[in-house]
Sequence to fold (133 residues):
Amino acid sequence: MAERPTTNWRRGMAKEAAELAAGTLDPDCTCMVELYPEELLLETDAVLDEFEGELPNLTEGDDARIFAAVERVVLALNALNATHDGCAFETDEREQLCAYIDEALTEQGVDVAALTARHGLGRHELTDRWRDW
Fold:
């Protein structure tokens, strides 16, 4: 399965905590806990759980169902971002979330490049129609 961005974020938090504990990181240079509060991680995972639950029902060529699933996950992430004053996802996080959606669909057998091309979009525009974050 495609690696969730939250897994990467937790790994970064653990690395930062280890460096802080080892004394190799200045406490004034820490940011991971502030960037990724546990509530945000859990809420993001819940949204991604819903998306992953839909994946087995999606098949290549069923564009309407695939776009509907993408729309649902993006709108749920929009709502989550709004509950965090529009600051839940910075540029790097946005890129990771978009890459995750693409990779998860690809692993399900969806040709994302062909899907988006059929609708006059570039591959990296898959989420743009709905994405506020």
Q: What stands out?
A: The CA atoms of residues 13 and 130 lie 29 Å apart.
